[in-house]
Amino acid sequence: MSDAVPPILEVRGLQKSFGGLRAVDDVTLAVPGGSLTALIGPNGAGKTTLFALVSGFITPDAGTVAFAGRQIAGLPAHLVCRAGMTRTFQIVQPFAGQTVLENIAVGAHLHRVRQADAQAHARAVAARVGLADQLDKRADSLPIAGRKRLELARALATDPRLLLLDEVMAGLNPSEIAEIIPIIRSIRDGGVTILLIEHVMQAVVNLAEHVWVLSYGRLIAEGSPAAITTDAQVIEAYLGHGAAARMQAMQVAQ
Amino acid sequence: MTPSAVRSLLFIVAFLAAMALLPAFIRSEFWLTFLILALYTASLGQAWNVLGGFGGQYSFGHAMFFGVGAYAAAVLQVRFGINPWVTLGAAFVLGGATGAMVGALTFRYGLKGSYFALVTLAFAEVFRVLANTFEFTGAGVGMMIKLAPGAANFQFVAKTGFYFTILSIVAAGLMVAWWLKHSRFGAWLTAVRENEDAARALGVDVFRVKLGAITLSGAMMATGGVFYVQMFQYIDPPLAFGAGISVEALLVAIVGGMGSIFGPLIGAFTLALVNHTTTELIGRAPALSMALYGLLLIVMVTFLPNGLIGGLASLARRLGLRQRSGGDE
Amino acid sequence: MLEPQILWPALLNGLTMGAIYALIALGLTLVYGVLHIINFAHGSLLMLGLYAVFFLFKFWKVDPYVALLALVPGMFALGYALQRLVIGRGSHGKDENILLVTLGLSIIIENLALHFFGSETRQIETAYSSAMVNIAGASLTVPRVAASAGALTCCAILWLIMARTDLGRAIRAIAKERQGARLVGIDVEHIFAMSFGIGLACLGAAACFLLPAFYVSPQVGHTFVLVAFTVVVLGGMGSFVGSLVGGFAVGVVESFGGLMLGESLGQIGVFVIFIAVLLFRPSGLFGHKV
User: How confident is the model over B67-109, as pLDDT tens digits?
Assistant: First the structure.
């Protein structure tokens, strides 16, 4: 990528094994400040583990993570969040018994002591993600699309500089995806750097500026979405060994 | 303050004002004692509620804090001749310190759910064994405090003195619960109860929040222990650290409604009435009342997990919904 | 001060009591291993069994060891019914709720016993109650030796049931993989209740072996519940071998604790083990992480 913008997140040689399995294997990447980028890969490629490593939920075996120039590998999750990096969860984790407003206010409280201030900020954030008319509903009464937005809103309410979004579009139907894409764009336009994880390649193609592809814990490709979708290694990772050759053969035959 | 915080504060003040006027209308010693004991139980329930209701950490051994408070009061008076009002402050601090110690150990090592409950029970048993062993705490005989009637000695001649003291303790408990409902610490504590990982991702220091809750809860519980000693002038290891007090504290909070401001009060008065009614019907049979409490616990957990307050709220919602939909039609 | 002639009997005392603890804990660990619930009423249910043995002896002169024939199936049926009708319904998907329900159950049982049987401690007097045997210089009562032998026999029978029968296989399948067991057509609710029933059947047997060497009072369940939990967590939740080793270990610690620290302070050993194991080695000696 261009070196003009200094990276807000710089991961070097990150490594994590569970038992004998290398879930994340020597991953190095740099996310430019203000960008909207994505990390893709087949199921079980280690994407969520990478997020958990970067955001302090698990400690890496080796490697460094620098956030805004500061080393944060090994820092506990709540301090990573305080430093300005907030993650969401692939399997949404609402505070089930509480209202939408209360849920978002938890995030807003990070930098606001008074309840009135936190709630005011929570209302503003809810409006940005389209939850303004759901504020008094219990979180567990929301449909899946609503819960995904709540997950996003809560994280956004912590005033992050970098948002790590773990499959915010998974489980949504095409029209719901079409609704959430402009929301994500507008968040980025508001000055928040965004790194997405997506399993479905299609979802990120017209959203991300730059894409990394993870397979069996290793980065196998990176580049613009257009370049990635024609990369032989990526096709093999998704469709199986030999798939790229078969596709090429088909194209040649045509 | 948000409008809802103001509303609920006004409601608490109105309730306390009404309770403060009550003795003027009650001539019977019996009913005054009834109110004192119900309020005392409510104060224990409120202490449990801070950790168990708001924080979702169910303790089965809250008697340890109660006992620390009770023994602090008894030992400081009997062995050192310290004024009981001063021991109230000391008990508050010691109860909090005990809470902090137990919390630091258990939460540091990530104990949750049933394991946390069982470990707190084991801690209470350790305290019971210690109090039962050493002469300093009167060993198995227990401790009696000297009769010295007078408000200056926290030994009121008139029952109303005890009434206003326990009402003040309950008032303080209500204010704590109100604060938890309308503060950042409360929001974080509830978030931890609902989902620790999500809370952590939003910048909540889960360990410190839990530690704060158990410290506060322990301090509140210890004041209940002091009140007990002053009211009955006697304490022994099974009374102070036995399962009875732990069960009472969690029961009133669960019956009334965990994580609500008035839940412990409603639970305490409900149980007091249940106890009174069974006594009227079949004579004094404390064991049968306790058995009934056990039944109530099962029924509540199975059918009304949000307690009487939650049950009333959902009933109101259902009625309200019917009215609204009726209006729409 | 610690001469062999004091230590050896204390060790034997601890081991014989430990065998009983192991049998009681086996019921608890089976229920935990399969249902992943912690049955707080375990001690109170043991107390109920002890009263049943006591009254069978008092009114009909049924020898406690003969009472096995009634207690084991009786407690099994009670367990089956309790799981199906009460405990299974209150969970709402949270372990803590089951703990509260079984706490409620123990409060009910304890206080009904207190109300109907009174708070006094009761013992039975049989022909063999005070007979003694000498084991390498240490005297032990016959009921005590019989109790540990009986407890170990029950452990062996339970192990055979788990290892060799279809029921045992179904139970193990569910303990490992609940959803999968459901998919291959195992009636999970039924097996849950069977497991709970077997857990209580262990208690029924323990009660028969225990009473001639021990006593019963409404509070006796309380004495046993934390001991049983200690055995279970020490051995590792859900581990059979762990329960046996844990039972012996706790019995011996208790015996030596009383010897060295005195009767009152000696009780502290068990609780300290319990706290320490849960804090520092929650997987126990033989189990998986809790």
Answer: 999 999 999 999 998 999 999 999 999 999 999 999 999 999 8
Residue B75 is part of which domain span? 3-242
Residues in chain A predicted with pLDDT less than 50, given as ranges, are 2
- Tell me the three state secondary structure of residue A114: coil
Q: CB of C280 within 8 Å of any CB in chain B?
A: yes
Residue corresponding to tokens 């051994």: B61
How confident is the model at residue B1, as a pLDDT? 83
B190 shares contact with chain A (CB less than 8 Å): yes
Q: What is the pLDDT of residues B155-196, one digit of tens each?
A: 888 889 999 999 999 999 999 999 999 999 999 999 999 999
Under a CB-based contact definition with an 8 Å cutoff, are residues C108 and C218 in contact?
Answer: no
Minimal Cα–Cα distance from A160 to chain B, Å? Answer: 10
Q: B106, B109, B114, B194: which to substitute to probe chain C, counting the most C Cβ within 10 Å?
A: B114
Q: How far apart are CA C239 and CA A207, in angstroms?
A: 52
Name the pLDDT band for C1 (thresholds 50, 70, 90). Answer: low
CA distance A234 to chain B (A): 31
Count up the domains in chain B and report the number: 1
The chain-wide mean pLDDT, for chain C, equals 85
Residue of B nearest to C89 (CA): B302
Given a contact cutoff of 8 angstroms between Cβ atoms, the answer to whether A142 and A121 are in contact is no
In this complex, whether C and A touch, counting 3 or more CB pairs under 8 angstroms, is: no
Residue C100 in contact with partner chain B when CB distance is under 8 A: yes
The answer to whether the Cα torsion of A232, A235, A237, A243 is positive or negative is negative
Are C96 and B106 within 8 A, CB to CB?
Answer: no
The residue ranges of every structural domain in chain A are: 7-93+159-253
CB-CB under 8 Å, B287 with C107: no
Q: What was the ipTM of the complex prediction? A: 0.90
Domains along chain C?
A: 4-117+128-280 (1.10.3470)
Mean pLDDT on C210-231 = 87
Nearest CA among C265, B187, C249, C284 for reference residue A117: B187
Q: Which chains touch A (3 or more CB pairs under 8 A)?
A: B
Contact yes or no for A164/A86 (Cβ under 8 A):
yes
Residue C186 — very low, low, confident or very high, per pLDDT cuts 50/70/90? confident
- A7-93+159-253 CATH choice from 3.40.50.300, 3.40.50.10490, 3.30.365.10, 3.40.30.10: 3.40.50.300
Predicted confidence band at B326 (pLDDT cuts at 50, 70, 90)?
very low
Count of Cβ atoms closer than 10 Å to residue A145 Cβ: 18
CB C218 within 8 A of CB C47: yes
Collect all residues of chain B within an 8 Å Cβ-Cβ radius of residue A55: 201
Is residue C125 scored above 80 in pLDDT? Answer: yes
B323: pLDDT strictly greater than 70: no
Contact A106 B191 (CB under 8 A): yes
